[in-house]
Every structure is written in structure tokens, then in C-alpha cells.
């Protein structure tokens, strides 16, 4: 069951200020007021679905607080994690810009606040503000890079290579996410992830602890495992 709870009739309250979202940091009070007129802040609890694969993409989604995961379901009903977003982030803007159904689903991983802005009025604002357009293009470029890395990890020749590539490309994810979330992100079981981390630690490739997270001790050996 989907839940979309309006926080209140005037959702732009501290600490959820537009100025805290990088793409809006440069806006004048008048421009912020224009955004407020076409947007609404929604609250999602852990496990709630923000949108489903195939839903109409009528809104831009700005993650202001919390964390979400974007995933696809395969023909066998397996879940394939595409990306994990932490605030502040812009989510699924490509589908919204192209006016196509969402190609994946999005789930809140903890209490999250998302600013939803109606597509057509927002695009009208983009035409009037080149700096806002540039910020959106920058976000798109970052997403393309993230997608390329995700595809590289999922096409790795084996589980060790998947783990090694994620450590090489995104140590902050290892130090922020739970192991079960990391395992889903790269398409392996938590047990396999734990076994590989122990192997890399025993070989002196990494140091790993709950308190300190992961530190690469031998980049050369790690890269050799990337395949």
C-alpha cells in the first residue's frame, strides 16, 4: 500500500529549507517562493514505496532528508538494486525529463522527506534560469557516472570482483550501509559478502571493522581482484 502523507499545508519549514538543496542554493527569495508554489514536502517511513516501476513520472523528486534505494524486479521476481541515495539528492530526474514511466521502483530506507515538484511548471522555471538548468545537467551527469559504475559491478566476472570494484569505487557506501544493503546493491548474498571481506582482510588488502569501516591497505592487489 502506498502512503503519501502531506506534512502540512505549508511544507517548507525549517530545517527543510530549499537553500539546503544544492541545486536551489543560489535562488533568490522570489525564486524560492516560485518553487514553493509548485512543490510539496512529503514524509515517508522506512519501507514505504515512493514510486513504483511503471508509474507516471509527473514530478521531480528531491530527497531532502533520509535515504532511499532504487531497484528493479527481474522476470524471476528477484530484486536488483540499482542505486542507493542519501540526502540531498535528485532522484529519477531522467524519466521525469523524458516524460516516460519510471524504469525502476524507489523505496525509503529510513524516515525520509522528499520534495515533489510538478514537472511542467518546474521546466518553465528552468527556461528562465540558466544557472538552475546547469545545476540539473550536473546532477544528470553524476547519475550517468553512477549508473555506469553500477553496471560495471553487476557485470563483474565473479563475486570477489563485484566486492573489489565497489570498494575501489565507493568506500563511503561500505562505511554507511548495512552489509545486507551492500550485498543487495551488488547482487550477492550477505554471507558471500562477509566471506569475501574476511578473505580480503586476511590477505592484507583491506582493514575492516564496524567502528572504523573499510580502509584499503593494498590498492595494487585490490585492483587485481577487480577483473
Helix and strand layout, with pairings?
Elements: E1 5-6, H1 29-38, E2 39-44, E3 49-51, E4 59-65, E5 67-73, E6 79-86, E7 89-91, H2 93-98, E8 105-108, E9 112-118, H3 119-128, H4 130-154, H5 159-169, H6 171-176, H7 179-186, H8 190-202, E10 206-209, E11 213-216, H9 219-225
Antiparallel strand pairs: 1-2, 2-9, 3-8, 4-7, 4-9, 5-6, 5-8, 10-11
Helix pairs in contact: 3-4, 4-5, 5-9, 7-8
How would you describe what is shown here?
A hairpin with a 5-residue loop joins β5 and β6. The longest helix is centred in the middle third of the chain and has 25 residues. α4 packs antiparallel against α5 and α5 packs across α9. It is elongated and about 60 Å long. It has two domains: 125 residues, Jelly Rolls; 70 residues, Arc Repressor Mutant, subunit A. The strands form three sheets. A five-stranded antiparallel sheet has the order 1-2-9-4-7. The chain has a four-stranded antiparallel sheet with strand order 3-8-5-6. Strands 10-11 form a two-stranded antiparallel sheet. The protein starts with a strand and ends with a helix. It is α+β, with helices and mostly antiparallel strands and 227 residues long. 42% of the residues lie in helices and 24% in strands.
Amino acid at each position: 500500500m502506498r502512503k503519501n502523507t502531506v506534512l502540512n499545508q505549508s511544507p517548507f519549514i525549517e530545517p527543510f529549507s530549499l537553500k539546503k538543496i544544492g541545486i536551489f542554493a543560489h535562488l533568490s527569495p522570489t525564486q524560492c517562493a516560485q518553487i514553493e508554489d509548485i512543490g510539496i514536502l512529503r514524509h515517508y517511513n522506512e519501507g514505504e514505496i515512493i514510486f513504483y516501476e511503471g508509474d507516471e513520472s509527473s514530478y521531480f523528486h528531491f530527497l531532502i532528508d533520509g535515504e532511499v534505494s532504487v531497484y528493479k524486479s527481474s522476470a524471476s521476481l528477484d530484486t536488483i538494486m540499482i542505486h542507493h541515495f542519501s540526502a540531498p539528492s535528485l532522484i529519477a530526474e531522467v524519466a521525469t525529463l523524458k516524460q516516460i514511466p519510471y524504469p525502476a521502483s524507489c523505496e525509503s530506507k529510513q524516515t525520509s522527506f522528499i520534495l515533489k515538484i510538478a514537472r511542467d511548471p518546474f521546466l518553465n522555471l528552468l527556461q528562465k534560469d540558466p544557472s538552475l538548468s546547469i545545476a540539473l545537467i550536473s546532477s544528470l551527469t553524476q547519475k550517468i557516472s553512477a549508473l555506469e559504475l553500477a553496471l560495471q559491478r553487476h557485470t563483474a566476472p565473479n563475486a570477489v570482483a563485484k566486492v573489489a570494484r565497489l570498494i575501489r569505487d565507493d568506500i563511503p557506501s561500505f562505511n554507511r550501509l548495512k552489509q545486507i544493503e551492500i550485498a543487495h546493491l551488488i547482487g550477492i548474498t550477505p554471507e558471500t559478502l562477509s566471506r569475501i571481506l574476511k578473505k580480503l582482510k586476511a590477505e592484507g588488502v583491506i582493514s575492516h571493522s564496524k567502528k572504523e569501516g573499510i580502509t584499503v591497505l593494498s590498492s595494487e592487489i585490490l585492483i587485481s581482484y577487480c577483473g
